[in-house]
Every structure is written in structure tokens, then in C-alpha cells.
Amino acid sequence: MTRQIKIIMLGFFLTLSEGTAYSESNHPIFKQIVCTVNVNKINPRELSIELADTEYKRSYGLMNREDMKSNSGMLFVWKDRQIRNFWMKNTHFNLDLFFLNNQGEIIEIYKNAKAFDETNIKSKEKVKYVLEMNAGEQNFKIGNKLKCNF
User: Fold this and answer.
1) What is the DSSP letter of 129?
2) Which pLDDT tens digit goes with each residue over 123-135?
3) Residue 39 is part of a domain; what is its CATH number?
4) Residue 123 counted as domain residue
5) Average model confidence (pLDDT) across the chain
6) Is residue 30 within 8 Å of residue 50, measured between CB atoms?
7) What is the DSSP string of 40-104?
């Protein structure tokens, strides 16, 4: 076997094994960022956020996780404003969903979405962002603003 064929075959097997490992875990890698919410003007609340900014990441979301740390969440990001639909399939813990406009302002809140519930959760207005956090953990209100650098 020539050296060139050996190199090509090695590259094929490395690619195959990387693809197999990825498909077995089937878990996308989410970028971590720090955001703040202006719950009060003196001390904005700091959050550790994972970005779901691709179709694959948005569809996978928080599925198959056992829990989420306090003051952590997942921010779903789109390029445009649309009515957004969510469900809790394969999500192991209850969540609050915060629907945000282009400026990051909370315009709608869905409290206590139940783990594993496949009922459609639909925003009433067109939104660009949706923040998911542990149910009951935050006292965010309509008008609070999420600020992130991404």
C-alpha cells in the first residue's frame, strides 16, 4: 500500500471515529456567556447563559439534562422576530420561559413549564429571543431587560 493511500485511509478513519463519537453523544456544544438582568437598577443580576444560536442547538435545547445550576439558563437566539414554539420533551426539570423583543426586554413570561410535557408553548407576540431558566428561581417581570455581549 502506498504512503498516499495510507494517509487517506487514516484520515477517513479519524473522520469516521470523530463522527461516530459525536453522533453517540448527540449533544451540541453551547457557547457560555455572562448576561445581566436589570431586576433593580442598583444591582443587576448576573447570569451564566448558554447560547442556542443554530437550528440544531435550538431544537436540542436543554433536553436530556438532569438539572441546571442556579442563575444559569439557555438563551435561544434567532436572526428575526417570529412567533416561537417550545415544548418540554425530554427535559427533566421544570422551566420558566422569558420571551424577549429585539432590545432584550421581557415582553411575556410562561411560568413553570412541566418536565416532559409535550404541550405546545407558544409566544403571543413575535420575539427574537427566549430565555429558559429553572422554574421559580427568578422574579423577573415584564419590562426587565437582559443584556448580553455576543
Assistant:
1) E
2) 999 999 999 999 9
3) 2.60.120.1140
4) yes
5) 86
6) yes
7) SSSSPEEEEEEEE-SHHHHHHTTTT-S---TTEEEEEEEEEEE--EE--TT--S-EEEEEE-TTS
pLDDT of residue 1: 52
Determine contact, residues 109/82, Cβ cutoff 8 Å: no
17 in a structural domain: no
Residue 52 lies in a domain: yes
With b meaning 16 or more CB within 10 Å and e meaning fewer, what string describes 73-96? bbbbbeeeeeebebbbeebebbbb
Residues above pLDDT 90, as percent of the chain: 76
Q: Which three cell numbers stand for residue 13?
A: 478513519
In the chain the first and final C-alpha atoms are separated, in Å, by: 49
Residue with cell 404541550: 119
Q: List pLDDT tens digits, range 17-62.
A: 333 333 446 789 999 999 999 887 778 899 999 999 999 999 999 9
Task: Tell me the C-alpha distance between 59 and 52, whole Å.
Answer: 9
Provide the number of structural domains found in the chain: 1
Phi, psi of 105 (to 5 degrees): -85, 135
Question: Residue 66 sits in which domain range?
Answer: 28-148
